[in-house]
Amino acid sequence: MHAVSIVIPVWNEEKNIPMLVQRIDNSLREHHILYEIIFVDDHSVDKTPEIIKKFSKKYPISFYIKQGNKGKSYSLAEGFEKAQYQTIAMLDADLQYPPEALPEFLKKIQEGANVVVANRKQYKVSTFRKFISSAFKFLFGKLLFGLHHDVQAGFKMFTKEVYETVHFNPSTGWAFDLEFLHRAKQAGYSIKNCDITFEKRQNGESKISFVKASWEIGMNALQ
For the whole model, what pTM was predicted? Predict the structure, then answer.
């Protein structure tokens, strides 16, 4: 049976956790895929921890409190180290990325891809955010590094071998995706895209200014 470890960084996502877990479970069980969900909580001040612990009684969930620096990149790094399966997925908790795409990602891994990246083919967010994402993808991904992928996508799947080979310590709280893909490409790994629809956040608030995050990632890319 195929298996995947799903690492999800969280901070104050109490309203999204129930639907997120149920959608992951429905999608993967339907395709007979064994899984574990690894939540890394960046010290939430709402009921996120309590809700996750409640769901862990029914679903294959592990819950960890962040030990290192604040920021998504550091949460991901801690979560990857906890993964027990040979295939790892990273997914945001806000439900803007569809968990239903996990089986398709895994299929591409089984067909020989080492890394699969969500390609936000359709956007249901503001025109401004779509423009910034497209511009970043072109300027920093394609022109600077020759990457024909959505270098800001928070939904990826890769083999544990890839992570262990290109392993690095994050330099900032948000600069992970571009550097990870660049290093994977340099190491000769196969990177494939998977088209998805990027939804509008339904519950809660964004944890950081999108422009600020893009600036931080862009500066890290130049460095």
Answer: 0.85
Task: Name the DSSP class of 201.
Answer: P
Exposure pattern of 189-209 as b/e (b: 16+ CB <10 Å)? bebbbbebebbeeeebeebee
Percent above pLDDT 90 for the chain: 63
At 13 the pLDDT is 95
> 102 to each of 112, 123, 193, how far by Cα in Å?
16, 19, 13
Local structure of residue 96 (DSSP, 8 states): S
- What's the pLDDT tens digit per position in 213-223? 555 656 665 66
Nearest to 115 by CA among 163, 77, 175, 74: 163
Asked whether the predicted pLDDT for residue 178 surpasses 80, the reply is: yes
Residue 84 has what DSSP assignment?
A: -
- Residue 191, pLDDT > 70, answer yes
- Report the C-alpha gap between 161 and 129 in whole angstroms: 33
- Nearest CA-CA partner of 100 in 6, 196, 204: 196
Q: Are 63 and 52 within 8 A, CB to CB?
A: yes
